[in-house]
Design goal:
Helix content is about 60%, strand content about 10%. The chain is α/β, with parallel strands linked by helices and about 600 residues long. It has a six-stranded mixed sheet with strand order 6-7-8-3-9-10. It has a four-stranded antiparallel sheet with strand order 2-1-4-5, with helices on one face. Strand 9 and strand 10 form a beta hairpin. The chain is elongated, with a radius of gyration of 36 Å.
Length: about 600
Amino acid sequence: MKNLFKMLAHLKSLDHHYMTWMSFFSLISALTPLIVLTLSRFLLNALVTGASQRYIYSLLAGLLGSSFLLYNLQAYLKLQVDIRRRRIERREAQGKSRKLMELDLAFLEDESFLTELEEIEQKKYISNIGVIPLAEQVESMTQAFFNVLFGIGLSLPVFLLPLSAGSINNPLLTVALFAGILLFAGFNSLLNNLNIKAAQEIVAGDLSRINLQFGYYVMRYASTPEGAKDVRLYTSSFVQDVAHWLYRGSHEFILQIFKQLGKFPSYQELLLGFNTFLIYAYIAFKAYVLKLPAGDILLYAGTITLVSEGLRNVLIARTDLKLNWTYFSEYLDFTELGVARYEGSLPVEKRLDRSYSLKAENISFAYPATKKEVLKDINIDLQIGKKYAVVGLNGSGKTTMIKLLTRLYDPDRGTIKLNGIDIKKFAYQEYLELFSVVFQDFKLFSLSISQNVACSMDYDAAKVKACLEKVGFGEMLASMPKGIETCLYTDYEEDGYQISGGEAQKIALARALYKNAPFMILDEPTAALDPVSEFEIYKHFQEIVEDRTTIYISHRLSSCRFCDEILVFDDGQIVQCGNHEELIQDPHGRYYELWNAQAAYYEDKS
């Protein structure tokens, strides 16, 4: 019951009115057949006893009219429930997305966490698991509960009728009947629990992992443009063998679940059938002894049928809810994950002159899942309006430093200060507004170019065009019939534009410009550009970044010559600092080594 209340609370959090509409629908759905049975009882008794035609017609009109109204009301309530059920589904997806965006980046860069999250999702592909099945199970159980409650209330008089006129009813027959019902119900419940426990162990086993692997190899890897090429050139038969092996494994698990749960319905039908037989025999005996009217027999038989069906549905819903808890317990743990970072409250000063200085003092950092320090005692003083280049080999700590400056992570030791104040003290979202960042693995959306640049459904069209032209996308934009309203990719629009890597990089640069933040950070901003486009970007770089404080990360050292200062990273430390002319004069320095290693590729070997 505690778990059930948690699930109900979750449904209510997604739609406050769902439980109300669902309860009304379940109530009317349970009352409708009982009201029809009650009116049918009076009508049948009137026909048998030869009542007046006027009375019979009035009963018939009441039966037809109430049936019409009740079934239409039931259909209206069902529509409202379905609407809110779909709203719950959408809001759950939105809530999950919102939660992922709120979490510390450390979670989303932790492979074990992502695997666990994907395994939770995979459980939804097992029958009757997930938020929509939960809503259906709650509806089924609520309606079944009302059926049992009202059915017992209407059929109770038959158990209280004395066996003969003027005599006191001998309770032994009724007591024996209910004792038998309770005995079989208890045995039924015990079998139910054993079957549910066994099925939960199967669901909690390797099925999610197998589903995850199957989806990766069959749906993702083989269907992406990159994976599809490799499959055809190297691994076609191998991927098919892996998919077949995983399919066989998942098929066996699913068979186990259905075999396990298949035992329960047979036991349930047998025990409920026996209970129903006892009750029908009891009613038949009393009807025979007391010569009950035909309408009364119809009513009692109908209500007992509803009670029997209600009990069956309660047990089925209980089984489904227990199985659903294997998913929901993990899902609720995810929704309750907290944010570890310190949330400051100090507002960031709004300065039109972009006069913000950023200083890192003795910064050291190791990723949560590792013990090795990626950065060791880093000191950086970013002066207002200057252009910085950050160079070094892969894994030297360049991108990690950017993550710390933008508070995607907090340092383990040391302090980062904005205008002399620890950045942790500032309101987190306000602090993020200070940065326009283009990471190497940036993402664009299957939306219009304008919405991608503005990162908003509302935008300044003139500003969007100006930013695109600054980064060299103007000529391409002019060739598009829809201009900035052109949709990227063909996921949702048939006439969407399938953009190249270099074009995507220009749009990402335009996005950074559109934000107009005082700090601009570019992580390999021209990696996907052709040499001509790259030259154009560098040629107009000062015009593009204007008076912003800019950090430029690149493996191409020739692109760093226009920067005021170059920071050379090596094994998590800054080993050199200066401009190009200064650093190239030190033949023993790391920069000199990197510069000459790249220059060797361009020397004339003839």
